[in-house]
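Hi support team,

I'm opening this ticket because the web form for multi-chain structure prediction keeps timing out on my end. I have pasted the exact lines I submitted so you can reproduce it. The total is 223 residues across two entries, so I didn't expect it to be a heavy job. Is there a limit I'm missing, or should I split the entries? Thanks in advance, R.K.
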Amino acid sequence: ETGVTQTPRHLVMGMTNKKSLKCEQHLGHNAMYWYKQSAKKPLELMFVYNFKEQTENNSVPSRFSPECPNSSHLFLHLHTLQPEDSALYLCASSPTQRLGGNEQFFGPGTRLTVL
Amino acid sequence: QKEVEQNSGPLSVPEGAIASLNCTYSDRGSQSFFWYRQYSGKSPELIMFIYSNGDKEDGRFTAQLNKASQYVSLLIRDSQPSDSATYLCAVTAGALNFGKGTSLLVTP
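Hello R.K., no limit was hit. The queue was backed up. Here is the completed structure from your submission:
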């Protein structure tokens, strides 16, 4: 595997379900990110982890819970979601969060539909 | 509110022409500037980044930055139909802020 991988690629869930999205980067990077991309809206940053420590939580509802066990893996745990949470969820990584090393590389995304 | 503004388009150019994509940003403290290309149904792909005022060239792509005017642009020379995509401008002074993107259509 190369680059940034995400699983599953598509997910349909009910509002009472609990599911998790997984991201893995094979680039040796130290920073990882979760974004939400909805139609007609800019990419929205959700969470940032730098060296496994959460450095940003962009006012994301608690029904989204991130987990970063190491610099290569990032999870997004989902529970009691709403239909408006349906979107493309993108994971990205960068060498660091600092200027000169913060160019981000994206995974293919998980297309989430909440019924 | 830190904003990144792009014309949504679509911007239509004939094959072989120069496509010019523009982006303005509101945060004067921004330090890093990125251009991503996103094909329909795919994730964004980094194509250029620029940190200093002036021009930066990479193949058919040129990024231009003017911090005084808070303006960054992307020029695509010899445009090809395969360049048809949405181009996202991203700016950071910390967290990366994305514009909504400009849709580019290169017609044969």
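A quick check on our side: The mean pLDDT of chain B is 94. Let us know if the file doesn't open in your viewer.
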